[in-house]
Amino acid sequence: MFIPGFINPEWHDGVLNQSSPEPKRPLRQRDLTIPQDRRGKTEEVVKMPRAKAKAKLKAQRGKTKRTGSSPSCSIFRQWTHIPRLVVFDLDFTLWFPEMYELYGSPFRKNAATGAVTDCRGEQVHFFPDVHTVLNVLETDPQFRDTAEVAVASRTTEPKWAKTCMRLMDVTLGGGVSATEDDAEDGDGAETEGETVNRSLQSIVDYEAIYPRNKRVHFEQLKKDSGVAYEDMLFFDNEYGNVADIQRLGVTCAYCPQGLTEGSWLQGMEAFQEAKQQQASDAN
Q1: Which of 122, 200, 237, 243 qualifies as a cystine partner to 165, CB 3.0-4.6 A?
Q2: C-alpha to C-alpha distance for 223 and 134, rounded to whole angstroms
Q3: Closest CA to 234 of 223, 224, 220, 249
Q4: Residue 199: which domain range?
Q5: How many CB atoms lie within 10 A of CB 11?
């Protein structure tokens, strides 16, 4: 059964996974115990799903260069309905590893490469398509003139998350041409192929970053922004958060492998369906 405003967790980037059970959050390393026998040998420990996903993502980063690359043309579409507030989770939705997996401050930014690392050199990475999606929100007139951006995170390390938001750069531009209206207004300085780096913090309009239930986050975001739940679009990698916030009337997109172009398009398509359903119910 289709529920407007909600993406079925069995679907990911347009592919139906019929054999997968309802996803569960993998155990954290600190929650695992390694039993030992009397001879001191350790039993075999099964690799964590999250660790496997992280290894795969690092391999992909070696093959994909995002700095200065052009956003995919397919992601720039004309939409009938535009959300007034687009909300993203942080840990394993926009970036990895999660804050609890790091060693903490001080965080440093390499002036030459822009890489952000913790006190022991562990680097925090954006998922590759984060640059593309934020490009749409910041450069496409449909969104730039209508939608605002927010983050909602239950991290237990809010100070670290806010520091990373301030230090980590999003690459904007690269193939996005200014419109004629922009040129007339004097905002068309960027030409095709030019890129600019902006911190994630400078892109985000509202934030709710503290270890509370996601419903508390959205109550705050609604109050701060003045945007109704039905005009919001939310992306999260945890099924429980998606199911919980969907009950508020927010259109939610489940992205278990982080934000991708596919999950963005699915979220926007779900938002169109939700708005059409609202109009039908009103009549």
Answers
A1: 200
A2: 24
A3: 249
A4: 88-97+127-282
A5: 14
Structure tokens at 232: 């919001």
CB 156, CB 214: distance < 8 Å: no
CA angle, residues 129, 130, 133, in degrees to nearest 5:
85
| Assigned domain for 55 exists | no
Q: Closest Cα to residue 74, out of 271, 242, 266, 215?
A: 266
What is the strand order of the sheet 85-88 is part of?
206-209, 148-153, 85-88, 232-236, 251-254
Residue 211 lies in a domain: yes
The Cα–Cα gap between 263 and 237 comes to 10
Residue 145 lies in a domain: yes
Is 69 exposed, middle or buried, given 0-12, 13-18 or 19+ CB atoms closer than 10 A? middle
Residue 235 contacts residue 227 (beta carbons within 8 Å): no
Residue 177 belongs to a domain: yes
Cα(136)–Cα(143) distance, rounded to whole angstroms? Answer: 7
Model pLDDT, residue 173: 84
Beta-bridge partners for 253: 235
Helix (H) or strand (E) holding 144: helix 141-144
Residues β-bridged to residue 237: none
Ranges of the chain with pLDDT below 70: 1-73, 174-193
CATH of the domain at 193: 3.40.50.1000
Q: Which residues, 6 or more positions from 142, have their beta carbon under 8 angstroms from its beta carbon? A: 78, 79, 82
pLDDT of residue 79: 96
Angle at 105 between CA 103 and CA 111, to 5 degrees: 110
Q: What DSSP state is assigned to residue 34?
A: -
- Contact criterion met (CB below 8 Å) for 142 and 76: no
Amino acid identity for residue 259 in this structure: L
The tally of domains found in the chain comes to 1
